[in-house]
């Protein structure tokens, strides 16, 4: 055939392969150059598929290593989603119900992106079952409504007891309470009725008050809680307790010819961010196990953010920047620790944990 010695079947096969390659969709072409695919399903508690849930793929970015969304998609009517053309790397995944019917979460089953698990993606890989089950906001059986709000003026270690009062026999009596979370917010689940609420800091270092800016429960404002509703915006800002003035002292006449003493250097201002209890590592340093770091206790005048870096024999472990670490074979014989960096708007403090025993196989 025009001077070729190849059989007709070989030529036909060559032509067919060329045609198939030309017709392959772009997604297959992407996989060929080293990208990956991430798949999963989002269900409601009880197993019903959730459509329209926003899926975000996050990657660390910038000098502060902030988690930034680098890809997004939504679930279909079956609750399924696909993220294509994902570059190799370390990611975290968020699930956001835009209707507000279900509580958002991060993979796998965490409330914040800082706590969530790393998703390692390799070139050409298809990562399956990156899934979530979303639950509705928690309302206990027999509880019909809620009061929500936040408390300002707190340090990172402060906790405030939020107490609900109801009128009983002509007097306001405590009926329920809850402690504020780390960021000062609270949600107090209550039966339908009329309440007043008070705010008390557990160390008695802040002046207690009642909503809305009242000194006593008798002067506080009523809050009506209705069935199946949330009454938001019941906030407070607590102020420090005024220091007790020292007793007045009778002035003493200075002795004659008192030598002049140079004034003492002014005291340094208190740090805007301090660590009271060092971070610690929990878990067994054994291959296949997971270790976790607790960030310790901190005192700050403003909100604190934290980043983490795991170290092996003092050397940085690549991509090990979460609160958990899965111990791998390459760490055998090494001692691990974590460098915890705390930041506020005007201060940065770095603290390192104690070392673990040598990693065992």
Structure description:
InterPro entries: Carb-bd-like_fold, Ig-like_fold. The chain has about 350 residues and is mainly β. The chain has helices at about 10-25, 25-30; strands at about 35-45, 55-60, 65-75, 80-85, 90-95, 105, 120, 125, 130-135, 145-150, 160-170, 170-180, 185-190, 195-200, 210, 225, 230, 235, 275, 280, 290-295, 295-300, 305-310, 315, 325, 335-345, 350. The relative contact order is 0.10. Mean pLDDT is about 80; it is low at about 1-5, about 15-20, about 25-30 and about 140-145. The protein has 2 helices and 27 strands. The strands form 7 sheets. Strands 2, 3, 5, 6 and 7 form a 5-stranded antiparallel sheet that branches. Strands 11, 12, 14, 15 and 16 form a 5-stranded antiparallel sheet that branches. It folds into 3 domains: about 35-135, Immunoglobulin-like (Sandwich), CATH 2.60.40.10; about 145-235, Carboxypeptidase-like, regulatory domain (Immunoglobulin-like, Sandwich), CATH 2.60.40; about 275-350, Immunoglobulin-like (Sandwich).
The CATH superfamily of the largest domain bears the name Immunoglobulins
Low-confidence stretches: 1-6, 13-18, 24-32, 139-144
Rg, Å, rounded: 30 Å
What structural class do the secondary elements suggest? Answer: mainly beta
The major β-sheet equals:
5 strands, antiparallel
Which CATH C-level class of the largest domain is it? Mainly Beta
Average pLDDT over all residues: 81
How many domains in all? 3
Shape: flat
Number of strands: 27
Number of helices, counting only DSSP H or I runs of 4 residues or more:
2
Distance between the termini: 65 Å
CATH architecture of the largest domain: Sandwich
CATH-derived topology of the largest domain: Immunoglobulin-like
Q: Fraction of residues in helices?
A: under 10%
Question: What is the H-and-E element order?
Answer: HHEEEEEEEEEEEEEEEEEEEEEEEEEEE
β-strand percent reads 35-45%
């Amino acid at each position: 055939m025009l001077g070729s010695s190849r059989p007709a079947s070989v030529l036909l096969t060559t032509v067919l392969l060329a045609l198939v390659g030309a017709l392959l969709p772009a997604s297959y072409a992407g996989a060929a150059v080293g990208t990956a695919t991430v798949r999963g399903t989002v269900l409601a508690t009880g197993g019903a598929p959730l459509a329209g849930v926003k899926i975000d793929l996050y990657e660390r970015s910038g000098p502060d290593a902030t988690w930034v969304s680098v890809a997004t998609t939504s679930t279909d009517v079956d609750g399924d989603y696909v993220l294509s053309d994902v570059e190799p790397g370390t990611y975290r995944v968020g699930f956001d119900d835009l209707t507000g019917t279900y509580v958002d979460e991060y993979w796998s089953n965490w409330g914040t992106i800082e706590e969530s698990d790393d998703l390692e993606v390799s070139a050409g890989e298809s990562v399956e079952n990156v899934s979530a089950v979303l639950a509705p906001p928690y309302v206990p059986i027999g509880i019909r409504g809620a009061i929500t709000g936040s408390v300002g003026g707190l340090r990172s270690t402060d906790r405030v007891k939020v107490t609900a009062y109801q009128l009983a026999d002509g007097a306001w009596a405590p009926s329920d309470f809850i402690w504020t979370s780390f960021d000062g917010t609270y949600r107090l689940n209550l039966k339908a009725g009329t309440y007043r609420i008070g705010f008390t800091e557990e160390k008695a270092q802040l002046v207690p008050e009642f909503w809305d800016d009242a000194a006593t429960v008798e002067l506080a404002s009523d809050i009506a809680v209705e069935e199946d509703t949330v009454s938001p915006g019941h906030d407070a800002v607590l102020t420090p307790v005024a220091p007790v003035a020292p007793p007045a002292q009778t002035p003493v006449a200075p002795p004659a010819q008192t030598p002049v003493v140079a004034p003492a250097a002014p005291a340094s201002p208190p740090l805007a961010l301090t660590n009271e209890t060092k971070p610690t590592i929990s878990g067994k340093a054994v291959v296949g196990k997971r270790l976790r770091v607790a960030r310790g206790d901190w005192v700050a005048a403003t909100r604190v953010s934290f980043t983490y870096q795991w170290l092996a024999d003092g050397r940085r472990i690549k991509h090990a920047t979460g609160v958990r670490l899965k111990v791998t074979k390459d760490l055998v014989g090494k001692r691990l620790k974590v460098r915890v960096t705390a930041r506020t708007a005007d201060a940065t403090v770095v603290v390192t944990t104690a070392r673990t025993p040598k990693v065992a196989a």
